[in-house]
Amino acid sequence: MTYNYTIYMPHLRLRQALPPLKRLAKLWPVIGVVGLRQVGKSTLLRDLLKIPDFVTLDDEDVRTDAENSTKVFLAKYPRPFVIDEIQKVPKLFDAIKSEVDKKRIPATFFITGSQAFSAGGLTRESLTGRLGSIKLFPLTLREALGPKEKPTLDLFVKAMKRGGMPVPMFLRDDASRWLYWDSWLETTLIRDLPRAYGKGYDLDFARLTIKEITAQLSLGFFPEITRFSKESRKVAKYLKAMESIFLLNRIPCHEKGKGRDHWLLGDSGLATYLLRNTLGTEHATLALARHYIFNEIAARCEYALDRKNIAYYKSARGEPVDFVVDGLPIKIITDSSASYGWHTKGLLGAMKALGSEQGLLAAPIEKSDTLKAKGLSRVSWLHFTT
Questions:
Q1: Residue 314 carries which DSSP code?
Q2: Helix runs in the chain, H state only
Q3: Tens digits of per-residue pLDDT, 272-311?
Q4: Which strand (E) or helix (H) includes residue 189?
């Protein structure tokens, strides 16, 4: 019997990354998919793109085989085939380069990684000009709902609490999700982060870093290095390593502003898990909205193969404006009754500094306002769904 996966296997949603992935496959001999552990990279290639031959370097025997002789390892499999978690055997990058340089055929290799290929000299530039890659984000709201269900504010709020990771978002109760995230985070800190960080990795310090990120989020702040209690140079190295495995997203300050890098977790579901003791507070709600909206915006840009630099804006004395996308400043609020009052002071300052005629005040309302004042618009959180 042939099953409709959308109905019987809810984690196998159609992904908006599929069309751009097919476009890349027509151009590049090596296609890369990167993203968080268990975000759906393997499912995308094996079950949605329908590439039948698949090996994962999570398997110790397979990994040992690849390490012993990359040439013999590659010769065992037909083309195309998928090499999952390729960062675990970095020598494969040079071996793949050698093959595609002899015969450049589009979509010869598909590789996935839970670590950025450019991090830590993994590729050593060996695949420059040979690799087309895409970052797979957690499921967007429209991906999670499917093509038939209309997004609503209530569904948005539920989705931002669950996040977009395929497994936990479909679990029926919070207790099951907490168990999932507990195991997921422990695995990430014990197996993935040490490889990205390198020599001198300290698991206790990594856990402390996550704890302090959580504390900053619970107070309504964007995490930034000046708010950590430990030595900033060491913290910066951990943040960079966490970024390389997509555990964190870095948001730089716009070049016309003044401020340090901000950091957000890779998925709002993970933020919910870490903030579970403060859920329902205004600060926790604001943190979840920021995480979810960031991923919606970033996914839209990535899947359009239009990798815009998403920044934030802050003047020397003003409050930060959450995001700046293509020169458009966006301020996120949690008050559905708020209009254009004190929330807009920083937004107006950002508009002036950036030379933008528009600014968006994103609020938990069903429909965006048609009223505009001084170039400002109050839009629904739903405005950012892809």
A1: -
A2: 5-8, 18-25, 41-43, 60-68, 70-75, 91-102, 141-145, 153-162, 174-187, 193-197, 203-218, 232-244, 268-274, 282-303, 345-354
A3: 999 999 999 999 999 999 999 999 999 999 999 988 889 9
A4: none
Cβ neighbours of 160 (radius 10 Å): 25
Kindly state the tokens that stand for 280: 């329902």
Sign for the CA dihedral angle at 188, 191, 195, 200 comes to positive
The pairing of strands 372-373 and 328-332 is unpaired
CB 159 within 8 A of CB 49: no
> What are residue 30's DSSP bridge partners?
109, 131
Instruction: Name which residue leads in pLDDT, 301 or 125.
Output: 301
CB 184 within 8 A of CB 269: no
Provide CB contacts within 8 A for 327, sequence distance 6+. 354, 355, 356
Q: List pLDDT tens digits, range 325-383.
A: 999 999 999 988 755 666 788 899 999 999 999 999 999 999 887 556 678 889 999 99
Q: Where are the alpha helices (DSSP H) in 163-281?
A: 174-187, 193-197, 203-218, 232-244, 268-274
CA distance 278 to 169: 20
Tokens of 48: 């949605």
Instruction: Please give the distance of CA 164 from its chain centroid, rounded to a whole number.
Output: 10
Please, what is the angle between helix 282-303 and helix 203-218, to 10°?
110
> How, if at all, do strands 321-325 and 109-113 pair?
unpaired
| DSSP-assigned letter for residue 253 | B
User: For residue 300, which amino acid is it?
Assistant: R
